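Batch manifest, entry 17 of 40.
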Amino acid sequence: MGARDEGAISALAEAIRSASRCVALTGAGVSTLSGIQDFRGKNGLYRTMNADTIFDISIFRHDPSYFYRMSGDFIYALDDKKPSTVHMALAALESAGYLDAVITQNIDLLHTKAGSRRVIEIHGSPAVHHCLSCGFQQGFSEVANVVRRGEIPRCPACGGILKPDITFFGEALPKKALEEAIDESRKADLMLVLGTSLIVHPAAGLPERTLRAGGRIVLVNDMPTALDDRAFLRFEDLETTFTGLLRTLELDR
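Output type: structure tokens
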């Protein structure tokens, strides 16, 4: 890491130290470090399959086997995935009192696994599955065992189809999570925008809310975004940036 990079990371550390309210917005790029494919990156899901079809609610209702067959390796192998450097760093920042919340577009549960306590999952989560017929709830591990056997998870109460509490295309985002995310974005005087190309709305509009309220944003992403020229700081490599940040804040012990 050169002197210029070190200077930028020192500036990032100072911005985090001095912020009265700091939040993070994370996208799929954060989890590629854990071996999880993103959607639109160089090796993303859109290169190998049609993710829009897999997560289409009308298709799911017509033929849920398609979703469970196509998403088996992507979602139902999450037990084998470990949090990345960035997941662990965000949990450390929260524990040290520097970070107030993580707003995530991801559905991989890794922020919680890393130890983050305030995680706002605006695209939902597979932690809970609901029966589409009677509303019965079942946890991720039980459903994952069924999916890994090549079966469709069904409700033990009525035999209906179980669906993960992930927001599919054609469904509204979880209202409470979205309201919390908007509120945190407005209140933040510093938002860390990590591993997202800021294409998918409404998540892509959250940094704008911070900017309009007078706050600053820091971007860390390996692809350009529409807000690059409005960022207080801009980095490309997540792992290098957060390794250096933890060292500068003396949280790497």
